[in-house]
């Protein structure tokens, strides 16, 4: 099956102008909140530098820190598992659940388990998984994927949430009051929390020095999910590591401000080993990450703390919606991560970008996102995955531009045609520029011709 | 002071008046301006499409053509950022390359940083919206992007503020991308045009009569959209505004 490409998916999203503008506004609102919060810290740029350096250092000594983390987490009584890919990760989770005969699972937000497609895998094995983050629960009930890593249901309007809840949770039809709907979800989730056999969480930060984990949520659902059942499974990508507990003082300040414009996430829950009488299993997942570690071009992307700020600021993401990227992590960072797994399938993503650089300036850990996207374009060309519709015109233009007389000639002919051809010969299906835009007006003389006249006039004046 | 004009290919062919405005501004300031006629294109379209091998010979030609001059000045932030930020891949270590990077300037940068212009003899009695083109803003650092924390500055804006009677309008989103993005404008036509439309409406609602920028490529896209939609907005490169106002005075 041919994978859907970004331009086509984006065009579908844009076709609904009102919705695309509503989506853009919703995310811009978050971006503005983030700006206000960033400006409130005069040391913001210094924090970004520090965070970037800590992360780069961690990536450069990843193996050592992972071992240190494993040692310390084990000392605290946790069991550490290693998974090289999504399949291994899912198998480990399944075997842990089967060991205790768990049938009902509550899961707090984790993009890693989305990346591994854990939910459908567990459901195939007869295990019910309930996402307990409100946004995630909404998309789960609608049988959709999250469209944003921090705001998974940002693409859904409250009227649609009302319909979904009416269908699944039997709320009053047509009641769109957010308080009413949230209350309904809360009651529904409470039943699920109470009945759960195990709780799965993602992880925001794993601390090598202590073997502890930090999970940040705004709804407290991670804590609720792991407080009643005996088994807590924490799933984390290896890039979530930080060396020291003191590093949290940098990252916790940056994370929520960048993500949602809050000074700090409502709940920053620290887990140091299992609770008394319980079990804590930590699964460290690679799934392609160590490939990035070895790549000088793309190593920086491993610094990502998954705040989603690059999505909120990206003018393309805001207008094309998260689903148009066809990946678990969309937006600028997703467009770097996805091709590293499968560049053929995701070859259009590094081009879903104007290289405006706003993502790079907003990134709290200073990933040079738009430069990495540009690098990916070159890589896709090198791998022979760039379509001929792009390679051939570029080759021809380069050839023409190496010869000034040819450039002058083609330019003059082009301008003549632009001035003299009838409208239908210029504006047609093969000219995407002209679909919604006028072509530039072609002047009779080029700059170099006007310059010649200017020079001769100057000479005759002297 | 000797200045070689670096006129981007599309300005040469489609917007010669922008090149002429640049020339006149510099000459009026006593610069000895020349236009090396062997120049064509800096290679940015190829480079941004991932076709580095097609951009390389153009980068090499660029070095050869412009190395002999004291300064290189160009009325396009985007093309200058190609030279200063992206030529390393092709030219690192070549004799004269480090120098070339240091002496290649976008026009507003050159006026503010090299010629130290601090007043402008001219009036422009219009409401003007300044579109801060991304490459000039973020790659060349011609202003503080809205995402960054620190003292605000913007070199093109500073120049415009020197004009008498000009009224600069404030769009809601100070420096959002217009959606041009080179081949993006064609490959992602739908998003590109939506972005451009949004940019135009933002400036129009702020009261702009004239929309300007230090990059003609953004303006080419915005002008195409504005013209099709018959928006009451004049589109002018900043060099044209600066030159017109000064020539009249």
Automatic annotation (TrEMBL), chain A:
One GO MF term: metal ion binding
Gene3D superfamilies, per the entry: Alpha-helical ferredoxin (1.10.1060.10), NagB/RpiA/CoA transferase-like (3.40.50.10420)
Keyword vocabulary terms for this entry: 4Fe-4S, Electron transport, Iron, Iron-sulfur, Metal-binding, Repeat, Transport
Keyword Iron-sulfur: yes
UniProt xrefs under InterPro entries: 4Fe4S_Fe-S-bd (IPR017896), 4Fe4S_Fe_S_CS (IPR017900), FTHF_cligase-like_sf (IPR024185), Helical_ferredxn (IPR009051), LUD_dom (IPR003741), LutB/LldF (IPR004452), LutB_C (IPR024569), NagB/RpiA_transferase-like (IPR037171)
BP terms from Gene Ontology: lactate metabolic process
Taxonomy, superkingdom: Bacteria
Pfam name, any one: Fer4_8
Domain 4Fe-4S ferredoxin-type: 294-324, 344-372
PANTHER family per UniProt: LACTATE UTILIZATION PROTEIN B (PTHR47153)
Protein name (Swiss-Prot/TrEMBL): Lactate utilization protein
Organism: Blastopirellula sediminis
Automatic annotation (TrEMBL), chain B:
Residue span, Cysteine-rich domain: 3-83, 128-223
Listed PANTHER family: LACTATE UTILIZATION PROTEIN A (PTHR30296:SF0), UNCHARACTERIZED PROTEIN YKGE (PTHR30296)
Organism: Blastopirellula sediminis
Domain of life of the organism encoding this protein: Bacteria
Molecular function GO labels: oxidoreductase activity
GO cellular component: cytosol
Name of the featured protein: (Fe-S)-binding protein
InterPro entries for this protein: Cys_rich_dom
């Amino acid at each position: 099956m041919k994978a859907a490409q970004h331009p086509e998916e984006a065009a579908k999203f844009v076709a609904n102008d009102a919705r695309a503008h509503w989506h853009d506004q919703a995310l811009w609102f978050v971006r503005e909140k983030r700006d206000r919060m960033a400006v409130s810290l005069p040391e913001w740029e210094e924090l970004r530098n520090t965070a970037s350096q800590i992360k780069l250092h961690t990536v450069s000594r990843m193996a050592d820190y992972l071992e240190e983390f494993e040692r310390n987490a084990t000392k605290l009584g946790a069991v550490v598992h290693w998974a090289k890919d999504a399949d291994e990760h899912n198998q480990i989770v399944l075997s842990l659940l089967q060991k205790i005969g768990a049938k009902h699972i509550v899961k707090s937000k984790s993009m890693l388990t989305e990346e591994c497609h854990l939910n459908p895998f567990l459901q195939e094995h007869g295990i019910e998984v309930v996402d307990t983050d409100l946004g995630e629960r909404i998309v789960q009930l609608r049988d959709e994927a999250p469209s944003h890593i921090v705001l998974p249901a940002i693409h859904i309007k409250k009227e649609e949430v009302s319909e979904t809840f009416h269908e699944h949770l039997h709320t009053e039809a047509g009641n769109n009051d957010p308080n009413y709907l949230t209350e309904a979800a809360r009651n529904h989730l409470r039943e699920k929390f109470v009945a759960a056999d195990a709780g799965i969480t993602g992880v925001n930060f794993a601390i090598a020095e202590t073997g502890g984990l930090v999970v940040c949520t705004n709804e407290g659902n991670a804590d609720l999910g792991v407080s009643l059942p005996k088994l807590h499974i924490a799933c984390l990508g290896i890039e979530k590591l930080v060396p020291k507990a003191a590093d949290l003082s940098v990252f916790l300040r940056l994370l929520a401000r960048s993500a949602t414009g809050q000074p700090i996430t409502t709940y920053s829950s620290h887990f140091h080993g299992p609770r008394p009488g319980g079990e804590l299993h930590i699964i460290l997942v690679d799934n392609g990450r160590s490939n990035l570690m070895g790549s000088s071009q793309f190593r920086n992307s491993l610094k990502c703390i998954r705040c989603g700020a690059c999505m909120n600021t990206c003018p393309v993401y805001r207008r094309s919606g998260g689903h148009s990227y066809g990946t678990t992590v969309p937006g600028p960072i997703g467009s770097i991560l996805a091709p590293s797994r499968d560049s053929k399938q995701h070859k259009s993503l590094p081009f879903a970008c104007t290289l405006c650089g706003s993502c790079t300036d907003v990134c709290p850990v200073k990933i040079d996102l738009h430069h990495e996207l540009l690098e990916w374009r070159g890589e896709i060309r090198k791998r022979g995955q760039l379509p001929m519709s792009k390679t051939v015109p570029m080759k021809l233009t380069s050839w023409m531009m190496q010869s000034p007389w040819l450039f002058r000639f083609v330019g003059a002919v082009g301008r003549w045609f632009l001035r003299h051809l009838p409208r239908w010969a210029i504006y047609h299906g093969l000219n995407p520029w002209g679909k919604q835009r006028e072509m530039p007006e072609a002047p009779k003389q080029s700059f170099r011709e006007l310059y010649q006249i200017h020079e001769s006039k100057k000479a005759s004046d002297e | 002071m000797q200045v070689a004009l670096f006129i981007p290919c599309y300005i040469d062919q489609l917007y010669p008046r922008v090149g002429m405005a640049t020339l006149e501004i510099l000459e009026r300031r006593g610069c000895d301006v020349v236009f090396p006629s062997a120049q064509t294109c800096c290679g940015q379209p190829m480079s941004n499409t991932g076709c580095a091998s097609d951009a390389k010979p153009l980068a090499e030609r660029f070095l050869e053509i412009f190395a002999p001059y004291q300064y290189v000045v160009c009325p396009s932030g985007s093309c200058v950022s190609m030279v200063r930020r992206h030529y390393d891949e092709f030219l690192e270590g070549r004799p004269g390359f480090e120098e070339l990077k240091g002496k290649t300037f976008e026009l507003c940068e050159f006026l503010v940083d090299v010629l130290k212009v601090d007043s402008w003899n001219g009036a422009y009695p219009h409401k003007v919206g300044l579109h801060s083109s991304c490459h000039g803003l973020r790659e060349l650092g011609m202003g503080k992007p809205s995402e960054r924390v620190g003292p605000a500055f913007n070199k093109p804006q500073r120049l415009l503020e020197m004009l008498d009677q000009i009224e600069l309008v404030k769009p809601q989103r100070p420096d959002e991308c217009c959606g041009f993005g080179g081949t993006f404008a064609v490959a992602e036509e739908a998003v590109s045009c939506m972005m451009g439309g949004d940019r135009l409406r933002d400036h129009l609602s702020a009261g702009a009569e004239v929309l300007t920028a230090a990059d003609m490529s953004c303006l080419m896209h915005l002008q195409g959209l504005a013209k099709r939609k018959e928006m009451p907005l004049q589109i002018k490169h900043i060099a044209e505004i600066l030159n017109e106002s000064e020539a009249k005075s």
